[in-house]
Amino acid sequence: MNFRRRRRRSAGGVFIAVLLGVLLGGGGKLWFDRTLSTVSGTVVDAATQQPLANAEVRWQHLTATTDSQGRFTLIGVDRELADVPLVLGGGDYEQRQVAVADASVPVVLQPDTVHGVITDRERRPIARARVTAGSATALAAEDGSFRIDGIAKNPALRVVAPGYRTVNVQPGSRRQLQVTLEAFTPKGMWVPFGALHTGEVREGWLRHVDRLQLNTVVLDVVSDRGQVAPAVATALTRQAGSVLEGGDDLGAIVKELRARNIYVVARLVVFKDSPVAAAKPEWSIRVARNGAPYTDCEGQRWLDPFEPAVWEYKLQQAERVVELGFNEVQFDYLRFPSDCIPGPLAYSRPLTDEAKLEAVEAFLQRAVARLRPKGVALAADVFGLVATKDDIGIGQQLESLGKYVDYVSPMVYPSTWGDGAFNLPYPPAEPYRVVRESVRAAVDRLAGSGAVVRPWLQSFDDYRTRRLPYRHRQIADQIRAAEEAGATGWMLWDPFGRYPLEDPPQLGG
After folding, report:
1. pTM for the full model?
2. Which region holds residue 53: left if phi is over 0, alpha if psi is between -120 and 50, else beta?
3. Which domains does the chain have, with CATH numbers?
4. Other C-beta atoms within 10 Å of 310: how many?
5. How far apart are CA 469 and CA 345, in angstroms?
6. CA pair distance 420, 403, nearest whole angstrom
7. Nearest CA to 507 among 466, 467, 462, 476?
8. Helix 308-323 crosses helix 353-371 at what angle (to 10 degrees)?
């Protein structure tokens, strides 16, 4: 029985073999030549104009790889399927489709990938540095390596990393890059809204910056009173009457500051915006019991942090800021209100602590998507208390913010801490201790997030019971404490812009 089966299989195999022999040896060969063909061609690198080796070529299920001379051959392409194109490229190159009939003409492929390594001057890798090229973006790995795909011809790359100076790279025909970043420690001060609005006043401020050997200024472009500079005005802000007209062109001011090698930060207040809240009552926070607009202790109205239309309005302002050439956009009042709350407030969504965090994160997610491709650094100002606590009911949590921004800036002013904080009977009398402990807590909590801590320091007199003066010693003590605790730079805040500091010795290390 088994023998007969084997014989039948053997007979069938012989029949098939004979049939194939007839087809291929006679009329079959003619059929193959008439319907199938061999297609050959050459692939060239658009950047170097040299033959491109190891490029992939596909036609349906057939594949080939170019040799060292950029040549390829595909055997068995069906002429009756002439409309099916060859597909070439992939990997580090754009993908192109070419008609089979055009394969004899050299196919030029454009590189669309750049990869490399980002290090500091000591060749230490810089993890989580961001590389952008147009709308394409990539994040460096722990070893500093990066790969950015989908870039245009002749790309201009921008590399941003907190604690380093931003660099622009024109790779040209190079696709493997070694990018070296220079460490940068921001040492700055806040400049009140409009204080750099005219040349004479601006020169005074710049002499102040030079005298204190600072390298950073934070300019208000949207203030906590809702005022906006003309360069970032919109139809809505003009309707609300919040535009500060006149003065010098803000874009020219930024250009001048950057020419002096000053790092320029745009402070943009987010959810505290009284003029627009009045002009758009449907966007405002209200008192639940009577529907009246909520106002804080300063009589200012707030926008609803849950409202996507509010996010869009603020991000339009941020995009205008980026176009002016600022190095960084710093979001302030990126939180829910905390003072003079008369009872339950009405929002567009139910209010919970989890929902508050989600609203702040949702705004930052959009900010990252809209602003990061433009190669600008992002920062968020937070309450000093947030450095040591998970949340104080305002929607700010360090670990949450650290996922999106480059710099987290807690306002660790000693006068904001109550008696007994850090086991100190009167914290404003111990500025070094307060700043060291609070900054160290923030640095520890943000470790590994990619964000760094750059605190706001108190440059104004104590406003609590003892009314202690804050002069050069108190400010220098805070700076020393911040640096020892692991901060990446610092910024001085005086609400009146006075900064009563002595001449050198230079502040900070």
Report:
1. 0.81
2. beta
3. 36-111 (2.60.40.1120), 113-181 (2.60.40.1120), 187-493 (3.20.20.80)
4. 24
5. 38
6. 32
7. 476
8. 30
Paired tokens of 364: 């930052």
Token reading at 374: 């433009």
Q: Give the CA angle between residues 184, 257, 253 to the nearest 5°.
A: 145
pLDDT tens digits in sequence order for the chain, 509 residues long: 333 333 444 444 544 444 444 444 444 444 445 567 899 999 998 878 899 999 999 999 999 999 999 999 999 999 888 789 999 887 888 889 999 989 889 999 988 888 999 999 999 999 989 898 877 888 899 999 999 887 777 778 889 999 999 898 888 777 788 999 999 999 999 988 777 666 777 777 788 788 888 999 999 888 888 899 888 888 999 999 999 877 678 898 899 899 999 999 999 999 999 999 999 999 999 999 999 999 999 999 999 999 999 999 999 999 999 999 999 999 999 999 998 999 999 999 999 999 999 999 999 999 999 998 888 999 999 999 999 987 688 999 999 999 999 999 999 999 999 999 999 999 999 999 999 999 999 999 999 888 999 999 999 999 999 999 998 899 999 999 999 999 999 999 988 777 766 654 456 65
Measured in degrees and rounded to the nearest 5, phi and psi for residue 139 equal: -120, 130
Can you tell me the distance from the alpha carbon of 310 to that of 283, in angstroms, rounded to the nearest whole number?
7
